[in-house]
UniProtKB/TrEMBL annotation, chain A:
Pfam families xrefs: ABC_tran
Family label: Belongs to the ABC transporter superfamily.
Keywords: Amino-acid transport, ATP-binding, Cell inner membrane, Cell membrane, Membrane, Nucleotide-binding, Transport
Protein's UniProt name: General L-amino acid transport system ATP-binding protein
Lineage, opening ranks: Bacteria, Pseudomonadati, Pseudomonadota, Gammaproteobacteria, Pseudomonadales
UniProtKB/TrEMBL annotation, chain B:
Protein name: General L-amino acid transport system permease protein
The keyword Transport is annotated on this UniProt entry: yes
GO cellular component: ATP-binding cassette (ABC) transporter complex
Pfam families (alphabetical): BPD_transp_1
Automatic annotation (TrEMBL), chain C:
Signal peptide start and end residues: none
Topology term for the membrane: Multi-pass membrane protein
Protein name as catalogued: General L-amino acid transport system permease protein
Family classification: Belongs to the binding-protein-dependent transport system permease family. HisMQ subfamily.
Length: 255, 366, 394
């Protein structure tokens, strides 16, 4: 399987371009001069100690956080204060959160059809068909009429992935999607993500699942103190890390 | 295999537009066109309201003098409040005996002070001792007897009466409320029904009707010949009324105690009263202290209703004073002063309860 | 007592068998309650006999013989006490309804203002809430009545607004509508417009289901509601003539008058309750985690839609239970109007009627049961609502 993923098409079409991005929380300099280019079909894993700015980086890509200096271009559109452009980019970029953030007052199906109905302005029937299609893909179509509170953590996270996919995004962002899960549920979520990778989705994942990084990623990025310290293909990154900080970090998490 | 050491870039100060005074103004007041408009409207409102009030209350106000004639028409006439201050505080309590009221208040503050020190060890025991001893001493000081000149309750009034009603009300309502709460949580159907009915009845009617009850119905309920003092009747009804509210607050606390605590107590062979008294209530009561303080604030405000049955509490003594022909037209001053006093008391207590709530919250999350 | 656990269920003596003890406790409790009841009843009977007070509800058919300053239904002095009851009940309900509507509007505004990104607005709302809710409502009623409305000039020097509205120390005078020839077409047009709006809304929903295209229902309905009745005014003339308040002698004649007692009580109660509702709304909105907003915006939903589809439905579940209890408080606090002589339940029944008839028990019973009935019916509704929500969640 891993070979199949590696051979998934990577075109040279630029999907995300971050140039000289700086961000501050008050006086605290969280992102220092981030430069990152992601092409279509690339699968990138970001790792690093907590507080290193990895989540902030991907949250800047769909403007959940505002950057203060530098340029971010997503699928040819630059992120500015223009609300129209932000909305356009957000509907092209799917995001999966650590704590799922499903809407508890809506059924699984309604969670999935909400954005297609109101943002894509799709007919209900079509939206529901698409939702069922993706729920089948994450292998929980039978839960469609339940509420998120009735599902297990792993199932909720798969619904969250399906919900993002229903918008047919060009890029998927994963912000520690397995950190809040019980160990036995991590695999079902990672399997779903691997499936996505096989289909050639452009993905950025903040995760500590190094096994996942090895099999799926084309590139692993190590961040520390708001900077990109090292980036390399997974084999090189894990077997021959170049940097002292990276080694130290890998030493701490790989046992 | 090469080894490089990454040199981290130094942290830079953020762009000036995002921090400091300018950054603060930008994010808090002028972040968008709509926001800027709102800021301007708000500033205009403040400009419209604050200077005239400030002028009235301070700059053009009259402070010196002894009669209405000493006041000019422009600003507030604080002379009125100054002249009637004694009556507002003590009602018709004889002037030469007012030190007894002051002493009662001082004793309360001094007595309760140790309870607010975190380092004080025997809080619970001391608190209970205080709850038993203080009311006796306070009653003796305020009412008299045993060597002190008797001041009948009909002479009590002003802020003193307000505080007496509120304090006795809450002190009496606490034990009764706890019993009602226990009854409501009881597994015995008859007791549960009695308590639920009692609680829901008193919570369903306005305090004003309860005070009417105390003045017109209570005399009918009592055996012939036995007549209770008007203040006492009112206080009894306030206690019963308030107990229903306390019961609901305490019940909330008891529901927050995990089932495991009941099971653990049962496993240790504790009976019902010991389980409740030693395990459940100590935890539940600690949880609901903020709720009890809030109930007390509500009660403190509600004591103003005794005006309906003709008691001279703080609000009533001010209302009477504003109707005095010698001080006509002082309504605004009187009510503003009353509002200020009530506000200081209630705000202090609600800040304290909010502080407690935060303290309890952190205790739970950590 | 400690042996309770050890005793085998069959052989427990009377004091150690928990089941028997439970019975004993309950019987004792019931006996005590009945005894207290009997004691009070007995005392009351003797007291009533000795004071020569009649009992029973027969007095309700007697003529009241006093005037009431505000009545929503026809009332004259010769009407019966039961009519007085209706007048008082309606006046209580009027204050409550006006208060609830105003308090809700002001309260929701305050709650939203408390969460505004604008520091100044946030602070102003906070200062308002902290000031108002720490001052007794009765004091606020007195303030409006004695310090604001009483010093107003008499009818001859009324403050006026475009010669249509007049405010003086006897109240607020405004024009009253009187039926004119154009009334029927106007009402029919309005009805048609309302029905049309409802149908339009249904149609728009169905269309969105089918095609996904939303329809500006709000604007079209508004247009419909204004245009259709407006058209009838053009075609068949004005629907209402206005009965203007006119100064005659020492007072105004005609029009509608809102007495100062009503203004004071409604102002004070709605401003007071609004402060509490503001806090309720704020904490309700805050109870929806920030993750929900982030999830919605990451799906591309605009802030307005996020609010409507994600935040409000969740916040309302948290807001509605405490909101109803605020409404209940307002209804109960409307009885404070008795202190300034506004003719509502308490001041009419527990006040005037009680004094005239001396039948304390009956009048108090009637008064209190009105409030009890309101409280109980609202809490029953509340329970039904909570059950429904619980059903949706699980």
């Amino acid at each position: 399987m891993s070979e199949a993923i590696k051979q998934a098409v990577v075109s040279d079409k630029m999907m995300i371009h971050m140039q000289g991005v700086n961000k501050w929380y008050g006086q605290f300099h969280v992102l220092k001069d981030i430069n990152l280019a992601v092409t279509q079909g690339e699968r990138i894993v970001l790792c690093g100690p907590s507080g290193s700015g990895k989540s902030t980086t991907i949250r800047c890509i769909n403007r959940l956080e505002e950057h203060q200096q530098g340029q971010i271009i997503v699928d040819g559109t630059e992120l500015t204060n223009d609300l129209k452009q932000i909305e356009r980019i957000r509907s092209e970029v799917g995001m999966v959160f650590q704590h799922f953030n499903l809407f508890p007052h809506l059924t699984v199906l309604q969670n999935c059809t909400l954005a297609p109905l109101w943002v894509r302005k799709m007919p209900r029937k079509e939206a529901e068909e698409i939702a069922m299609h993706y729920l089948q893909r994450v292998r929980i179509p039978e839960q469609a009429h339940k509420y998120p509170g009735q599902l297990s953590g792993g199932q909720q996270q798969r619904v969250a992935i399906a919900r993002a996919l229903c918008m047919k995004p060009k890029i998927m962002l994963f912000d520690e999607p397995t950190s809040a899960l019980d160990p036995e549920m991590v695999k079902e979520v990672l399997d779903t993500m691997i499936g996505l990778a096989q289909d050639g989705m452009t993905m950025l994942c903040v995760t500590h699942e190094m096994g996942f990084a090895r099999t799926v990623a084309n590139r692993v990025i190590f961040m520390d103190k708001g900077e990109i310290v090292e980036q390399a293909p997974p084999d090189q990154f894990f077997d021959h890390p170049q940097n002292e900080r990276t080694k130290l970090f890998l030493g701490q998490i790989l046992h | 295999m090469s080894n490089t050491t990454h040199t981290f870039k130094p942290s830079l100060p953020p762009p000036t537009l995002n921090v400091g005074v300018i950054g603060w103004l930008r994010t808090n007041l002028f972040s968008s066109v709509g926001n800027t408009l709102l800021t301007l409207v708000a500033l205009y409102l403040i400009w419209l309201v604050v200077p005239p009030i400030f002028n009235w209350a301070f700059l053009q106000a009259d402070w010196a003098g002894a009669t209405r004639a000493d006041c000019t028409a422009e600003g507030a006439c604080w002379v009125f409040v100054k002249e009637r201050f004694g009556q507002f505080m003590y009602g018709f309590y004889p002037a030469e005996l007012r030190w007894r009221v002051d002493l009662t208040a001082v004793l309360a503050v001094v007595g309760a002070a140790p309870l607010f020190f975190d380092r004080f060890k025997h809080k619970a025991r001391y608190g209970i001792a205080l709850l038993v001893a203080y009311p006796v001493i306070a009653f003796w000081l305020l009412y008299g007897g045993f060597g002190l000149q008797v001041v009948p309750s009909s002479a009590w009034g002003g802020l003193m009466l307000t505080i007496v009603i509120a304090a006795v009300g809450i002190a009496g309502a606490l034990p009764l409320g706890i019993l009602l709460a226990l009854g409501r949580r009881s597994s015995l159907p008859a007791i549960k029904v009695i308590c639920v009915t009692t609680i829901e009845f008193w919570r369903g009617v306005p305090l004003i009707t309860v005070l009417f009850l105390s003045s017109v119905m209570l005399p009918l309920f009592l055996p012939e010949g036995l007549s209770l003092d008007k203040l006492l009747r009112a206080v009894v009804m306030v206690v019963i009324f308030e107990a229903a509210y306390i019961a609901e607050v305490v019940r909330g606390g008891m529901q927050a105690i995990p089932k495991g605590q009941y099971e653990a107590a049962a496993a240790m062979g504790l009976g019902y009263w010991r389980t409740m008294g030693l395990v459940i209530l100590p935890q539940a009561l600690k949880l609901v202290i903020p709720g009890i303080v809030n109930t007390f604030i509500a009660l403190f405000k509600d004591t103003s209703l005794v005006i309906i049955i003709g008691l001279f509490d703080f609000l009533n003594s001010i209302k009477r004073a504003t109707a005095d022909p010698a001080w006509l037209g002082m309504s605004t001053e009187g009510y503003v002063f009353a509002a200020l006093v009530y506000w200081v008391f209630c705000f202090a207590m609600s800040s304290y309860s909010a502080h407690l709530e935060r303290k309890l919250n952190t205790g739970h999350t950590r | 007592m400690q042996n309770t656990g050890n005793a085998s269920p069959a052989s427990g003596s009377f004091f150690t068998d928990p089941r028997k003890r439970a019975w004993l406790f309950q019987i004792v409790a019931v006996v005590i309650v009945v005894a207290i009841g009997w004691f009070l009843f007995n005392n009351t009977q003797t007291n009533l006999q000795h004071r020569g007070i009649t009992s029973g509800f027969g007095f309700l058919q007697n003529s009241a013989g006093f005037g009431i300053s505000q009545h929503l239904i026809d009332y004259t002095e010769s009407d019966t006490y039961s009519r007085v009851f209706l007048v008082g009940l309606l006046n209580t309900l009027l204050v409550s309804a006006l208060g609830i509507v105003l308090a809700t509007i002001i309260g929701f505004t305050l709650g939203v203002a408390r969460l505004s990104p604008n520091w100044l607005i946030r602070r102003l709302a906070g200062v308002y809430i902290e000031t108002i809710r720490n001052i007794p409502p009765l004091l606020q009623i007195f303030f409006w009545y004695f310090a604001v409305l009483s010093p107003l000039p008499g009818p001859r020097q009324s403050l006026e607004l475009g010669e249509v509205f007049f405010v003086n120390n006897r109240g607020l005078y405004m024009p009253a509508p009187v039926a004119a020839p154009g009334m029927w077409p106007f009402w029919i047009a309005l009805l048609v417009a309302v029905v049309g709006s409802v149908l339009l809304r249904r149609w728009a929903r169905a269309r969105q289901h089918l095609t996904g295209l939303p329809f500006p229902v709000l604007w079209c309905s508004l247009g419909l509601l204004i245009l259709l009745p407006g058209l009838t005014v053009v075609i068949s003339g004005v629907p209402f003539d206005w009965d203007m308040p006119v100064l005659q002698g020492f007072n105004f004649r005609g029009g509608w008058v809102v007495i100062p007692e009503l203004i004071s009580i409604v102002m004070a109660l709605s401003l007071y309750t609004a402060a509490f509702i503001g806090e309720t709304v704020r904490s309700g909105i805050q109870s929806v985690s920030h993750g929900q907003t982030e999830a919605a915006s990451s799906l591309g939903l605009r802030p307005g839609l996020t609010l409507r589809l994600v935040i409000i439905p969740q916040a309302l579940r948290v807001i509605i239970p405490p909101l109803t209890s605020q409404y209940l408080n307002l209804v109960k606090n409307s009885s404070l109007a008795a202190a300034i002589g506004y003719p509502e339940m308490v001041s009419l029944f527990a006040g005037t009627v009680l004094n005239q008839t001396g039948q304390a028990i009956e009048t108090m019973m009637i008064t209190m049961s009105v409030y009890l009935a309101i409280s109980i019916s609202i809490s029953v509704l509340m329970n039904v609502y909570n059950k429904r929500i619980a059903l949706i969640e699980r």
